[in-house]
Amino acid sequence: MKVDQTKPLEYSTEQNNLNILGFWMFLGAEIMLFATLFASYFTLEGRTGSGPSGSEIFEIMPVIFETFILLTSSFTIGLGVHAMRLMNKKATIAFFSITLLLGLAFVGFEVVEFFTYIEEGAALQTSAFTSILLSTLGTHGAHVTFGLFWGLFILIQIKKRGLTPETANKSFIFSLYWHFLDVVWIFIFSFVYLKGMM
Amino acid sequence: MDFFDRFAIPHPSPVIYASMVAITLTLVAIVAGVTYTKKWGYLWREWLTTVDHKRIGMMYLISALLMLFRGGADAIMMRAQTALPENTLLDSQHYNEIFTTHGVVMIIFMAMAFIMALMNFVVPLQIGARDVAFPRLNALSFWLYFWGAMLFNISFVIGGSPDAGWTSYFPLAGNEFSQSVGTNYYMIAIQIAGLGTLITGINFIVTILKMRAPGMTLMKMPMFTWSALITNLIIVFAFPVLTVALAMGTIDRLFGGNFFTTTDGGMDMLWANLFWVWGHPEVYILILPAFGIYSEIIPTFARRNLYGYKSMVASIVLISVLSFVVWVHHFFTMGQGAMVNSIFSITTMAIAIPTGIKIFNWLFTLWKGKITITVPMLYSLGFIPIFTIGGVTGVMLGMSAADYQYHNTMFLVAHFHLVIIPGVVFAMLAGLTYWWPKMFGFMLNERIGKLSFWLISIGTCVAFFPMFISGLDGQARRMYTYSEATGFGIWNMISFVGAIMLAAGFVTIVYNIYYSTRYASRDISSDPWDARSLEWATHTPVPDYNFAITPQVNSSEAFWDSKKNGHKLFPGEYKEIHMPNNSGVPFIMSAIFFVLGFALVFSIWILAVIALLGIFACLAHRSFEQDHGYHIPVEEVKETEEKLGGARQ
């Protein structure tokens, strides 16, 4: 394996470059996935049948919390990648751990939110609106949950193997994933919750 | 008892029971055969765990041919049923199941696999690469496709086939009107195979963008590689839409969601839109690689470089953009109003412009060329007129006002078969014959090949031209029978004769493969067609590492230049070559996907959870795995090269 010392660790081998470009392509597919969900959401938004509408079930405070937590986690993972570039293993692990804990808190809030909706009579089966609402939020939530495990595995690898071209590459790609989920959340926050509450 | 009821077929017939027996016997025969010849180890080490793009291509090829015959059997049954008025060969339910599975199998499991087969085999060779960017993901793609196809194909013996058409329009495909598990199979099997396709898309984009031989700029790439690049871009942007649509359909069917229902705010037209937002680009995912293949074959056998290379590239790019903005033409008559129809009518007809440019470029390539008539060339020449007829009738259908006459009639069926068959099937057979010597080390017999060509091309015309007439006369598609007074009888009978010819053509192809395997000469050079692109510059059979020395490219036809103008293609010395290790995980993980799919189809939740955990375990295993592949030492490379007929320097 040829390691190019002039480049940051995550870009230092040929395979690393391929991995990162491949992941950007994957993110392109993810953009299409969420775009389709959003398009469907806007189509079905008003089709509430006999169930509740968005303004009846959305509450601003939990959503503000969730947003705050997720945005912070995106910031801390940025710090983690920065620490990784400085080859500071301890700080990298610390910031990645904080990111994952924040992600866990976010998922926790979301689970509570889902139970509240179902209690209020807005289940997956209630209407077209609740179906697409819970599917869109659920897809994002499932991505975050998947990310928690993925991130945890990478964390263990950094701890055991140190900052190598391989672990750095994985961490960097994971950070791209995490930032992407944050961007999607900003859209959810603006166009699902804020718009729905207006 | 309840347990067996769930897996029973809802509409049994003797044919299905006979198939069950046949499937069981075949499986037993395969298992017994492999055990008897002690080939399990070989099968596992060399094929099931392989990450070599060439072998994956071959496995795609075999799967595609098998699916061609499965879909073909459906087609023959359909044509036989409608050959006579008031025929009672099949009942309406059975007919519904057959046209549904014919469509799905042919598009998703045959045509896509055929394209993947040629793309996998040819693209890395054409760009002078050692393998694809992510060899292991490539294996995963294939096995996901394979197990998805298997899941779909067991539907007709366990639980019942899908019967709501290959478009699976809701509310027809909803629980209310499709009560058997058939449509569950549709939703989940396509989802699994689609995941594989998406991974291929990502893999090949990165491969083509990053792994080209030095000197091969984008505008020096062979046309087939260009078409593969654009096709994969379409895949990455179109398949996620299908993923979402299928997931929504699954939620509706399994969990009582309300996306596409007619009550509680559900919107059935959303399915139609999402399906065709994927479905129309899908048409171009099928046709663009075919265009690429013709652009390789026509210059080779006209002994001239491709006319208008730049305009060829530009028109593929333009087609790929337009492919995303025409989907509404699939439902002009479903009430979106004159303005919307007009816009989509115009974008639809606009596709004829870049396509026309390509047709003229091929004709100009032929003009003043020294044409040799070989089997691949015959398919390419046959493609031009038949495809043009299919294409022009497409423009007719694209006129939204006139579409009220053609919509949902046999006219449409004739149109799309007359573009898909010459466009995809001819191209794939041409590509198959053309690249066969590179794949397997011998040529297919030309005389039998020509017979297949004539049977298939005449069969296509005989089978589908009459449908233009019966369609304009008002014969609706998907009708399982009609009365004698309609006068459709004669046209359907002619179609049936054409279908038999087509079937005979495909049988001769199989015979050709058998015959050539036995009798064809193994003593062929690495470049039997005197071709122009890089895949012919390496040995036949292609060594594991493709090229001992990475080729140096300086024009769009570097290999041709090296033969005619003395361009040095392989500069430098042998170096040790890095290769990826084989892995069983892609196969195992995809097999678990099959289990997951089966569990979901029948709502067996415990099994589904276990399967999900299994998939998760595979992913976790991959995350922690450290696998840097291995190196082939210089001496071994030298030895292999000399054994294959002279070292390349």
From TrEMBL, chain A:
Segments traversing the membrane: 21-43, 63-81, 93-112, 132-156, 176-194
Domain of life from the UniProt record: Bacteria
Membrane topology: Multi-pass membrane protein
Record-linked CDD domains: Ubiquinol_oxidase_III
Record keyword ATP-binding present: no
Stored PROSITE patterns: COX3
Keyword terms of this UniProt record: Cell membrane, Membrane, Oxidoreductase, Transmembrane, Transmembrane helix
EC number of the protein: 1.10.3.-
Keyword Cytoplasm: no
Catalytically driven reaction(s): 2 a quinol + O2 = 2 a quinone + 2 H2O
InterPro entries hit by this protein: Cyt_c/ubiquinol_Oxase_su3, Cyt_c_oxidase-like_su3, Cyt_c_oxidase_su3-like_sf, Cyt_c_oxidase_su3_a-hlx, QoxC, Ubiquinol_oxase_su3_dom
Heme-copper oxidase subunit III family profile domain ranges (all copies): 1-197
Coiled-coil zones: none
Subcellular location: Cell membrane
A family per Pfam: COX3
Family stated for the protein in its record: Belongs to the cytochrome c oxidase subunit 3 family.
Record function comment: Catalyzes quinol oxidation with the concomitant reduction of oxygen to water.
Protein name: Quinol oxidase subunit 3
Source species: Sediminibacillus dalangtanensis
Gene this chain is encoded by: qoxC
Automatic annotation (TrEMBL), chain B:
EC number(s) stated in the UniProt entry for this protein: 1.10.3.-
Pfam families tied to this protein: COX1
CDD domains, per the entry: Ubiquinol_Oxidase_I (cd01662)
Subcellular location: Cell membrane
Metabolic or biological pathway: Energy metabolism; oxidative phosphorylation
UniProt-listed PROSITE patterns: COX1, COX1_CUB
Main location: membrane
SUPFAM superfamilies from the UniProt entry: Cytochrome c oxidase subunit I-like (SSF81442)
Alphabetically ordered keywords of this record: Cell membrane, Copper, Electron transport, Heme, Hydrogen ion transport, Ion transport, Iron, Membrane, Metal-binding, Oxidoreductase, Respiratory chain, Transmembrane, Transmembrane helix, Transport
Cofactor note: Binds a copper B center. Heme A3.
Catalytic activity from the UniProt record: 2 a quinol + O2 = 2 a quinone + 2 H2O
Transmembrane segments: 15-37, 58-78, 98-125, 137-158, 185-209, 229-251, 271-291, 312-332, 338-357, 378-402, 414-436, 448-469, 489-514, 587-616
Similarity-based family: Belongs to the heme-copper respiratory oxidase family.
Protein name, as recorded: Quinol oxidase subunit 1
Lineage: Bacteria, Bacillati, Bacillota, Bacilli, Bacillales
Name of encoding gene: qoxB
